[in-house]
Amino acid sequence: MSIEDMPHSGDRPTREISVTVNGEEVTREVEPRLKLSDFLRNECDLQGVRVGCEHGVCGACTVSLDGDTVKSCLLYAVQAEGLAVETVEGLADDGQLHPVQEAFHEEHALQCGFCTSGFVMATKSLLEENPDPDRDEVKEGLADNICRCTGYQNIYRAVDRAADKLDAVETDGGADDTATDGGER
Ligand code: FES
Ligand code: FES
Q: How far is the CA of 184 from the centre of ligand 1 (A)?
């Protein structure tokens, strides 16, 4: 077979999918082998979905799929057909950061930031299931996410602070009197 006769990408089968991404329906023609992480990054331009290991180990690609926390590198985009995906880009509300994002900012819970969106999504999910986790529960809840450069202590403090913020929202509808100096509590 000459190189001209070899199949090229234009010959590969595709399938139309419609996925609700951060509240907006996205319809695309995709190859069945396209990973959900690559779909979000390249077709939806959501670069907050990070791709680290592509093997389900690092958690950088963590998103919410119909309310379940998933590693988007372990799913094909076609598996999200008809479902709702939320990425870190969907958390801020009209320019106002989500309390988990605020807490990560205030506790300086990042250095390079590569892992941060995955940690934020995992933290949001953890606190939805367990609004007041102790330190061991926080460690267990974030065990699927790897950070290479923070030493984790500020991340754990950010989760504590996020829990306080979300509790304040629950209790009084939004007043947040948590300190913003990033100090150890
Ligand atoms: S890129 Fe998906 S878990 Fe690492
Ligand atoms: S902040 Fe650098 S890998 Fe986590």
A: 30
**119 within 8 A of 105, measured Cβ to Cβ:** no
The pLDDT tens digits of the residues spanning 138-173 come to 999 999 999 999 999 999 999 999 999 999 988 876
Separation between Cα atoms, residue 120 and residue 29, nearest integer Å: 30
- Is 53 a pocket residue for ligand 1 (Cβ < 6 Å)? yes
- Contact between 26 and 19 (Cβ < 8 Å): yes
Q: Does the beta carbon of 108 sit less than 6 angstroms from any atom of ligand 2?
A: no
Residues 6+ apart with CB under 8 A from 154: 107, 108, 109, 110
**C-alpha of residue 40 to centroid of ligand 1, in Å:** 13
Residue 98's φ and ψ, nearest 5 degrees, are -65, 150
